[in-house]
Specification:
The chain is α+β, with helices and mostly antiparallel strands. The chain is built from five helices and seven strands.
């Protein structure tokens, strides 16, 4: 089984310069399409559009000097990290876990949460907020509060 995470990789000043140039070239070549790259003098390598988008984002972070960590969605995070991702307090996150709103597992006395489950919950909550705001806006319009 391959590692679930890689990193962090902290870019040097030279990495930042090269990444800035590469990100620009990749953006011009890619934009939602598969891209074929030639690495050194080797054979061409075809990258699917999704990987091109991900690589461009990594390069943009590198160009700005930010450390990059690559993790699969199966990667497990601590309750504090999950709370940070959701921008909630750790006690609130533990309540979400204990009430079954987000699945988790115990490792000794610690709780571990799959990154995929945290991101799925985040997506669900954003959609719920949007539906609620749409309903409030429709109600305000019906009442003639704006329009």
């Amino acid at each position: 089984m391959k590692a679930q995470t890689m990193g962090p990789v902290i870019p040097s000043a030279e990495d930042m310069r090269v990444a800035r140039c590469a990100a620009g070239k990749l953006a011009k070549a890619g934009s939602g399409r598969d891209v074929t790259l030639r690495v050194g003098r080797g054979e061409p390598v075809e990258l699917p559009a999704g990987a091109v988008k991900m690589l461009a984002e990594i390069l943009e972070h590198f160009a700005e000097g930010r450390a990059v960590v690559l993790a699969t969605r199966e990667f497990e995070v601590s309750t504090q990290r999950a709370a940070d991702i959701l921008n909630v307090s750790r006690p609130y996150l533990v309540e979400l876990l204990e009430t079954g709103k987000i699945p988790f597992r115990r490792v000794g006395t610690h709780r571990r949460v799959r990154l995929d489950d945290v991101l799925s919950y985040q997506t669900e909550m954003r959609a719920h907020r949007e539906r609620t705001l749409d309903a409030l806006a429709a109600q305000a319009q019906e009442l003639g509060l704006y329009g």
